[in-house]
Amino acid sequence: MSGLRSGKRLHPELRFLGLAGPGAAFIVISLLLPLLSIVVFSFWRTESYELYADWNLDNYRTLLGEAAYRTFFLRSLVTAAIVTAICLVCGWPVAYFIARWGGRYRLLLVLLLAAPFFTGAILRITALQGLLGPIGLVNMTLVELGLPPIEALMYTQLASGLGLVYLFISFMVTAIYLSLVNFNFELLEVAKINGAKPWRAFIEITWPLNWIGTAIGIVLVFIPCLANVVTPRFLGGPDATSFGMSLSQQFGETGTWALGSAMGVFLFLASFAVILAIWPTIKLKRSGFTGAVQQ
Amino acid sequence: MPNAALELDSVTRRFGPVIAVDRISLAIEQDEFFALLGPSGSGKTTMLRLIAGLEQPDEGQVRIAGEVVTDLPPYRRGVGMVFQNFLLFPHKTVAENIVFPLRMQKMDRAQQQKQLGWILELLHLQGLEARYPNELSGGQQQRVALARGLISRPALLLLDEPLANLDRELRSEMEVEIRRYQKELKIPFVYVTHNQEEALTMSDRIAVMRNGRFEQIGAKTEIYTNPASAFVAAFVGHANRLDGQLSEIDGGLARMNWAGGQLLVPRPADAKSGDRVRYFIKHEDLEVTAAGLNGGGLNGHVANDINQVSGTLRDIIFKGQTANYIITLPQGTDLVVSDTPRTITLKPSDPVIVRWPAGSGACFAAEGA
Ligand SMILES: Nc1ncnc2c1ncn2[C@@H]1O[C@H](COP(=O)(O)OP(=O)(O)OP(=O)(O)O)[C@@H](O)[C@H]1O
Ligand SMILES: [Mg+2]
Description:
Chain A is mainly alpha-helical. Chain A has helices at residues 4-8, 12-42, 58-65, 67-101, 106-113, 121-132, 137-144, 157-180, 186-193, 198-209, 211-226, 230-234, 243-251, 257-278, and strands at 45-47, 50-52. Chain A is globular and about 70 Å long. The A-B interface holds A 184, 186-187, 189-197, 200, 204-205, 208-209, 283, 285-288 and B 52-54, 73-75, 77-81, 83, 85, 87, 89-91, 100-101, 104-105, 132, 134, 148, 152. The structure holds adenosine-5'-triphosphate (ATP) and magnesium ion. Adenosine-5'-triphosphate (ATP) binds next to strand 2 and helix 1 of chain B.
């Protein structure tokens, strides 16, 4: 077809593999090996901070049998669900506003969303602690004004949940925004001319056509929230212990690595289940998604 | 008289310093196929958007079937609209796209299906119901868009260059089709185009738009044969343009000095002797013949109420039913004559004479002269 040279060239797939290879290898090694090792450890046994390779299911029995772990997991699950819902409800209008009316400031506004990341998670949480805690800005102001402080904000599950929203909402906004910038807003005008009120046009057109971005946002918020360790430790009280926090204790304080590994496997499976649940709802070809899938 | 299907009353829309639509008044009758013709940026799309309710006028009033809709949102106006880029909903099937307006009206499902069957048949879309827009050809997509615009039998259908993205053959096929739907359904169509042939083929009445104003509005034959301005004369049909100076006024006619000779042209309103003018004569109004033995040298000559000029045939552009004869005049300008290719047997570089009835064509005071 295109003459002499093309015959001697590598297939494009092969050349691409050459480029993608190192990155792919890094991802596989850095993701899969640790995962494999925790799967293996989860069937082992720990005794006085030592791992012993005698294969058993005790860790899983403990995990599923003891009420505390169930509570931790349910607490994490419910928190993640609520936090994701809040991020969704608060994030959508923000993303929509930026994509629709941000004009030439769009990119700047989205980058601003990432500004808190410049400082790192712990610092941000500490800042939030300074805001919500007993001697934090909110409560100190109230006390100064002669009002009682809001107890619910001091080392509670609520505070921990608020911290999560604060940490993750920008992921949600960014994911939805990236979907909306590829959305053809003229379709909304078409819907309105054809008799759809604005909310109806949103349900019929905007929401389904931006479901990919929304779903990615949900996954990006829900899964880290499920595994969350930081916010209960810094903002939550004694009744806020999350599954992730308990998990990290197995590797730290208690040194029960095998049980911790089993918890990790469990968490991985739970996250995987979330992705499996969302997967069938995504129809790339019909979504107006611009990256067409090649057969 | 019953209410007009659509009335605009001195409607104005500005975008900053640009006046996109400038005090436009218009009435469109039931059953009418109305074309809005104008060059890019003349305000055609803005006018449709004002009618649809996608834009609010800064001044003026819009009435649909006698009802004032100026402040109504698009979803309460009951008009349909078809766009150049189709704008089908990519996540809905053909059937779902088409019944969308009916669903919004909360029509019951049985009735929806009945209407769907009817419109699928009318637009030859049977068998495509379950497809998605990305599985259709451009022509099919445009039919689906038309079906969606027509299924609810709107009070008015607005079409914004609906054929501009289709290839030429499909376009002429669709021109005929769209006119047929309009005549069958008796829904008034407002059809925006910058293609004068499309406007002439399809419509009953044409408004020629320029800089947000109507340059002329009237029956298409009127626009074609009696252009009201130099702009319309140049934009509609294919005309030769001759710039000259009036020398003598004679009732409705005037003599124009042109290229060292004289032509008899219609007298522009209020024209005086000595005015600079621009004269338009359509390609098909001219007739070309081989120059006889005594031929040459007739440069701008009026005899027996015939204008005639002589020149050299430079090229013949065969177009099928007609041919364009390009004739170079002694002073270097070109005239184009459109004629049946069989009638004459001329070869390039033959000396020829071009004739046309004196006083035909259109003549206007030269702009900015
Ligand atoms: N939203 C807008 N903001 C600013 N100016 C606009 C806007 N819409 C239209 N205009 C201006 O109004 C004028 C008319 O535009 P309009 O789109 O109506 O032209 P048109 O006749 O449809 O042209 P085309 O044939 O290219 O589609 C143009 O000068 C355009 O730049
Ligand atoms: Mg336009």
